[in-house]
Design brief:
- By secondary structure, this protein is an alpha/beta fold.
- The chain is built from 15 helices and twelve strands.
- The strands form two sheets. Strands 7-6-5-4-3-2-1-8-9-10 form a ten-stranded mixed beta sheet.
- Strand 8 and strand 9 form a beta hairpin.
- Helix 1 (43-56) runs parallel beside helix 2 and helix 7 packs parallel to helix 13 (373-395).
- The chain is globular and about 85 Å long.
- Residues 206-210 have low confidence and may be disordered.
- Bound molecules: iron/sulfur cluster (SF4) (2 copies).
- Residues 278-279, 284, 287, 299, 301, 333, 354-356 line the site of one iron/sulfur cluster.
- One iron/sulfur cluster binds next to loops.
Length: 453
């Protein structure tokens, strides 16, 4: 059987970071390794990984994704070596792309010249304007990081590096969608935005228990019976309203100019092309995570001992990716879906979202409902008519950007209708004549409306 494509998020410096973001689920991974462990990827692991990853991918274009912790702490020489190895092992006729996710605080001319030269796509983690960003994204001394991040953005802009943004929707950003969206669009000037909801359950102690691990598939981990969520977790309805409000602004003004990952993914689903993001797919399991020492885990959200598949320095990468345990991990996303989800009218778009968030109980008492369910129901129902309109446009060969004029025209009709409906006899006439309604159009429209026609 041909190999299916897979994706690995690689962490060359493990969880080590120069920031101390309060909501970061990844920092505590330090406790997975013994004290005084070196979290730096060795040359041997780097070469082993690049060689195996390139040989295993069936696609023409092969994407490497480097993440952290803060990957730039590895230093530029590591990435120069990485580029050399990618070129050395890239099979003839194939193309390699590289993306790197960073907090942006250590970027300078040297880094950005390098990114530009090798056409990196740089993801900047930024949560919105200063008060929202600095709420949780602070350095080791608890000081704000916003200014340093924006300095990094300026370097990227000066060197014309391709960049996008990754924004965590937390308890507070979740309440200010347009402040966040407009800031990213107008100040950071990003043309591609990723939003990810932060949802963490409270653990039972320090270290690895500080955050509760994701629920095992089928586990009855309902919030009513278990620990509550951390205070930075976005509230479910807020998340739905956040996405809906950003969508409303985007669909009226920015289609074709700004790309919002979730909207692109959902348009693909409405177009019948399936989910291009694991969380909305029926099954998952092809987005894995690799630690600095070659340890491969089922997923970035499941870096826990029970989801360790093995080490690529000991077992061939492709064998680990194809392990039955990994296939089961991915299939469980579908197989453990509660009846409430299976019968849900937006299941085709949601699929119960990520199993990491499935720790609520359905109204009929079944475990495994997604914490964000109430938000997703609102959001998917909200975008449905727009997505249908997009689909009609695209299927008839018209550009997606035409949706903006259609939506604005629809808005104008609704406004006009509302003006006529709410006007009383002594108000100025909604037709704009300057006369009173009762001496102008009232006899024609008001009485007709009063008689229900
Ligand atoms: S567990 Fe969640 S994030 Fe991980 S692969 Fe599955 S859907 Fe994606
Ligand atoms: S919206 Fe709620 S009920 Fe519907 S599939 Fe998603 S999580 Fe399940």
């Amino acid at each position: 059987m041909p190999q299916t494509p897979f994706h690995i998020m690689t962490k060359p410096i493990g969880p080590i970071c120069n920031l101390d973001c309060k909501y970061c689920y990844y920092l505590e991974k330090e406790h997975l390794y013994p004290p005084r462990h070196s979290f730096r990827m060795t040359d041997e692991t780097l070469e082993n990984y690049i060689r195996q990853y390139l040989a295993a991918q069936p696609t023409q274009e092969i994407e490497f994704a480097w993440q952290g912790g803060e990957p730039t702490l590895m230093g530029l020489d590591f990435f120069k070596r990485m580029v050399e190895l990618q070129q050395k092992y890239c099979p003839p006729g194939k193309r390699v792309t590289t993306s790197l996710q960073t907090n942006g605080t250590l970027l300078n001319d040297e880094w950005c010249e390098f990114f530009k030269k090798h056409d990196f796509l740089v993801g900047i983690s930024i949560d919105g304007p200063p008060d929202l960003h600095d709420r949780y994204r602070v350095d080791k001394g608890g000081k704000p990081s916003f200014d340093q991040v924006m300095r990094g953005v300026k370097y990227l802009q000066a060197h014309e590096v391709r960049y996008n943004t990754l924004t965590v929707v937390h308890r507070y950003t979740g309440k200010r969608p347009l402040d966040v969206y407009r800031f990213l669009r107008d100040e950071v000037k990003t043309e591609f935005m990723q939003f990810i909801p932060i949802v963490e359950r409270v653990g039972e102690g320090e270290g690895l228990l500080w955050l509760a691990p994701p629920p095992a598939i089928g586990e009855d981990a309902s919030v009513e019976k278990g620990p509550p969520v951390q205070p930075w977790s976005v509230e479910p309805r807020d998340y739905g309203d956040f996405l809906s409000a950003v969508f409303d602004e985007w669909v009226r003004s920015d289609v074709g100019k700004v790309f919002v990952q979730l909207f692109e993914v959902h348009l693909g689903i409405w177009m019948g092309m399936g989910a291009s993001l694991c969380v909305f797919g029926e099954t998952c399991g092809s987005a894995l995570a690799m630690e600095h020492n070659g340890d491969l885990y089922s997923c970035d959200h499941y870096v826990y001992p029970e989801y360790l598949l093995g080490n690529i320095n000991e077992t061939p990468l492709i064998d680990l990716v194809n392990l039955p345990a990994q296939k089961k991990f991915g299939d469980d996303k579908r197989d453990a879906l509660p009846k409430y989800c299976r019968e849900c009218d937006v299941r085709f778009a949601c699929n119960g979202e990520c199993p990491k968030h499935r720790f609520y109980t359905t109204p009929d008492g079944e475990p495994g409902l997604n914490y964000l369910c109430a938000g997703y129901k609102r959001y998917f129902k909200h975008i449905d008519p727009y997505m249908r309109a997009f689909t009609r446009l695209l299927r008839s060969g018209r550009p997606a950007t035409e949706i903006m004029a259609l939506v604005r025209e629809h808005d104008a009709q609704r406004e006009t209708q509302a003006r006529w409906t709410s006007a009383s006899r002594n108000d100025p006439c909604p037709c704009g004549s300057g006369k009173k309604y009762k001496t102008c159009c009232w006899s024609k429209r008001g009485q007709a409306a009063a008689h229900g026609s």
